[in-house]
Amino acid sequence: MGQTLTIKSATHSYQVVMEKGSRFRLAEQLKQHTPGYTKTVLIIDKNVADLYKEDFLSSFAEAPQVIEVASGERSKSFETYHQLVTKLLEAGLDRKAVVVAIGGGVVGDVAGFVAATYMRGIRFIQVPTTILAHDSSVGGKTGINHPLGKNLIGAFHAPSAVLYDPEILESLPEAELRSGFAEVIKHGLIHDRAFYTWLVDHIHSLTDLHVDMLGDLLLRSIKVKADVVEVDEKEQGIRAHLNFGHTLGHAIEAELGYGQLTHGEAVAIGMIFAMKLSEKVLHTTLPIDETSTYLQRLGYETSLRKGLTIAGLIDRMKLDKKASSGNMQFVLLSEVGIAGLYQVQEEVIESLLQELIG
Ligand SMILES: NC(=O)c1ccc[n+]([C@@H]2O[C@H](COP(=O)([O-])OP(=O)(O)OC[C@H]3O[C@@H](n4cnc5c(N)ncnc54)[C@H](O)[C@@H]3O)[C@@H](O)[C@H]2O)c1
Ligand SMILES: O=C(O)C(=O)C[C@@H](O)[C@H](O)[C@H](O)COP(=O)(O)O
Ligand SMILES: [Zn+2]
């Protein structure tokens, strides 16, 4: 039956189910987690469809409609959103229908936003297929990007279940292991010092992330996310801590052009920046060298790419959703495992960015 973790949202509780081979039981799982549903449509990442579509369909007596979404960050767009809603209307989905999002964070975010808004909200199930999606599939943040910035349009809409089959992660390319693992490290840094230390001591290379241990590792990381979103689902307070590394990370993604650097790679640069900022603003001492060396050993970049400008990044960061009246706010660490949200003066950010640009 695999391992489960129950998450409480404001509207309902839902389960994260981690079970090897569960992709062959999707029809059964759907009945269990969304009782009484009238119809379903599977919205699936194109690469994932090529590899696993038949596996997902194998348990249905009558195959549901499948909509394939082009792989990549560019699909988190108005165009894809519009196309998907149109296809659901044409398919005749009613308010008791269920959307199943199968893929990484891109498909989860856009399909989740479709479900959040279709007829003012229908149920949806997250079937994460990347490491990164251990983060994106839990907590109910859904949305799309705007040319001006990441995730600027969206809604909070909790899934009815998160169905993880760790076997699927075996086909992930190295760059995607790296992207997803950044959010695992983030969870340790902001909320679970022992977990962070365990990662540094035990995961020496991305090849250490093999299927036999990924289920446990991801559940531990999801537990951090669950602890936070259960207390503050709609980001009125501590949920912002999950945004550690993201103020700069999102700015980098948008400035470079979506998809040039993966989300996790951009967040990794943002985390090192936020640790340096923490030392400056909070007069604390953090293991920046250790984290930086660790990230570099795993193949992450930790400084800013050529072509990025301080002015461009600052303009983006002023549009970040945490900004208040144009003042930038950053998640900083007073120590590993303890995060907080702080307003930081533009001059301080500017001078530190200068150091990172070199
Ligand atoms: N909603 C949230 O709380 C939240 C949290 C974190 C990140 N995000 C968002 O998630 C997105 C990134 O998600 P992602 O890293 O999963 O990227 P992604 O969805 O683009 O997937 C990464 C790549 O891996 C491929 N892929 C997916 N599963 C595969 C598999 N099992 N085998 C082989 N290839 C596979 C995809 O086709 C794609 O090319 C970003 O847009 C980010 O903003 C959202
Ligand atoms: O769940 C959250 O809250 C997070 O901040 C998790 C992040 O890893 C994720 O990238 C999220 O999409 C960022 O949210 P945003 O509100 O900054 O768009
Ligand atoms: Zn993220």
TrEMBL record:
Pathway as given in its UniProt record: Metabolic intermediate biosynthesis; chorismate biosynthesis; chorismate from D-erythrose 4-phosphate and phosphoenolpyruvate: step 2/7
UniProt-annotated binding residues for NAD(+): 71-76, 105-109, 129-130, 141, 150
- EC no. given is 4.2.3.4
* Reactions accelerated catalytically: 7-phospho-2-dehydro-3-deoxy-D-arabino-heptonate = 3-dehydroquinate + phosphate
User: Sorted alphabetically, which keywords does the UniProt record give?
Assistant: Amino-acid biosynthesis, Aromatic amino acid biosynthesis, Cobalt, Cytoplasm, Lyase, Metal-binding, NAD, Nucleotide-binding, Zinc
Single Gene Ontology BP annotation: chorismate biosynthetic process
Q: Name one GO cellular component term.
A: cytoplasm
Q: Which SUPFAM superfamilies match?
A: Dehydroquinate synthase-like
- Sequence ranges assigned to domain 3-dehydroquinate synthase N-terminal in this UniProt record: 67-178
**Biological role:** Catalyzes the conversion of 3-deoxy-D-arabino-heptulosonate 7-phosphate (DAHP) to dehydroquinate (DHQ).
What family does this belong to? Belongs to the sugar phosphate cyclases superfamily. Dehydroquinate synthase family.
The record's section on HAMAP family has: DHQ_synthase
Q: What is this protein called?
A: 3-dehydroquinate synthase
